[in-house]
Design brief:
This protein has 424 residues and is mainly α. It folds into two domains: 206 residues, Hypothetical protein af1432; 205 residues, Orthogonal Bundle (Hypothetical protein af1432). The protein contains 22 helices and two strands. It has a two-stranded antiparallel sheet. The protein is elongated and about 70 Å long.
């Protein structure tokens, strides 16, 4: 019996966390750096291994509720300028809500919920596990945001330590500050913090270096990231869920194995991962995109590939996910693959993406009818842009596939409306 694929949990978390910080040079490695600082403080504080793992996950995903590039940049700028953010609690609450959807991330969810709560706002003592870990994450996050990226780190060390010390007893509990000072008393700490190879350090030495997750664990985590990707805009709130659902049914009809169907679902969940690098002002633009804006949009599948391809065991998924705008004649983007480079999984995902996308409302048009969708899919397959056999399978099973897609999207939409939707 063929063994099911597994993935190193640290590798998966680090890469998906990395994807969230692609949007701006100001954000690059922010969550990884924060996780490094929190990890170092946690060790000095004497946290047990499980507590450090939970803190590490929370730090890697602490800005998961900041759904737009603009909000993330504003959070960083406010720290540097010592100004107030209008709704700093918003992304903490959204982060908790998203993480709670994955049962094994619930401990991290509580830490994320309170990672902007000052020490003076707590009623519980510092030895309360949630309080202590939230305080460590608050300090780590604050410190990383203060770092000036174009200035040598050891020239900033004294000033950064001084800023943190000045907040002892107010924003940060004195014990947490003391642990930080202890950790920061080595040049190694600061040089590791800004090391371009920090990803590798955390992967090979961090808390999750030996833990692996199976397909079920991968699926639950990719559903989380699917929501982060899609919930940035009400127009795409259920898009990836619909694409993944379409992939599942179409793959089964085609005759793929159960394992391949599960991998196709994961690929569908993550196919637009690279859109985390695209500004909301472009994603939600109501008019036609300019040539320059469309070039930016074209980069999203490249970033999907570059992130997923760093995860050992997901090489096949990285291609299926990233090739969804490729065409059989080589006219797609950004890799200009031709038919010989596009296997069955890539062809299924490309068709599923188009099928779901043209059925949805977008800022610049209404969703299309079954007649219009059928016409476009036939036209694309007749022009040998999409696989003709798979297109025919979809059209021959249109009602079955469409019904399942709508059912999955409806469930996701209910969650989005209840927790994330903002009135126009």
């Amino acid at each position: 019996m063929r063994r099911q694929p597994t993935v190193n949990l640290g590798n998966l978390l680090l890469s998906l966390s990395d994807a969230m910080d692609l949007a701006s040079p100001k954000l690059a490695q922010h969550q990884q750096r924060t996780a490094f600082v929190a990890w170092q403080i946690g060790k000095i504080a004497g946290l047990e291994d499980l507590a450090i793992e939970e803190l590490f996950i929370a730090a890697l995903l602490h800005d998961i509720g900041a759904l737009s590039v603009e909000e993330k940049v504003a959070l960083r700028q406010a720290t540097i300028e010592e100004s107030e953010v209008e709704d700093v609690e918003g992304h903490c609450i959204r982060g908790e809500t998203l993480l709670e959807k994955v049962s094994w991330l619930e401990p991290a969810a509580k830490i994320v919920r309170f990672h902007h709560r000052d020490w003076t706002q707590w009623d519980q003592p510092i030895d309360d596990p949630t309080v202590l870990r939230s305080q460590i994450l608050l300090l780590a996050d604050y410190l990383e945001r203060l770092v000036i990226r174009d200035r040598y780190i050891l020239h900033q060390e004294e000033e950064l330590v001084s800023r943190v010390k000045s907040m002892s007893g107010n924003s940060f509990h004195p014990d947490v500050v003391d642990c930080f000072i202890n950790a920061a008393d080595r040049e190694e700490f600061w040089l590791d913090l800004v090391n371009p190879r920090l990803y590798s350090l955390l992967l090979h030495q961090g808390p999750y270096k030996r833990l692996h997750v199976d397909l079920l664990g991968m699926t639950s985590l990719t559903e989380l990231f699917r929501n982060i990707i899609d919930f940035r805009s009400r127009f795409t709130a259920t898009h990836s869920a619909g694409v993944a659902a379409c992939c599942v049914v179409l793959s089964k009809i085609f005759g793929l194995t159960e394992t391949e169907v599960q991998l196709m679902e994961i690929a569908g969940n993550l196919h637009d991962l690279g859109k985390l690098a695209i500004q909301n002002s472009i994603l939600e633009k109501r008019g036609k995109l300019t040539k320059e804006e469309f070039y930016i949009i074209k980069s999203h599948t490249y970033f999907t590939y570059s992130v997923l391809n760093t995860i050992g065991g997901l090489e096949q998924i990285s291609e299926w996910s990233a090739f969804h705008h490729e065409k059989l004649d080589g006219s797609g983007y950004p890799f200009h693959c031709t038919a010989s480079a596009l296997d069955t999984g890539a062809r299924i995902l490309a068709i599923a993406d188009l099928f779901v996308a043209i059925a949805e409302d977008r800022p610049y048009r209404k969703g299309m009818s079954q007649k219009e969708i059928t016409r476009i899919l036939k036209e694309f397959s007749n022009r040998q842009l999409l696989d003709k056999n798979i297109t025919c399978l979809l059209l021959d099973n249109y009602d079955k596939i469409n019904c399942y897609v709508k059912e999955v999207q409806s469930s996701v939409l209910d969650f989005y409306k209840n927790q994330f939707s903002v009135p126009d």
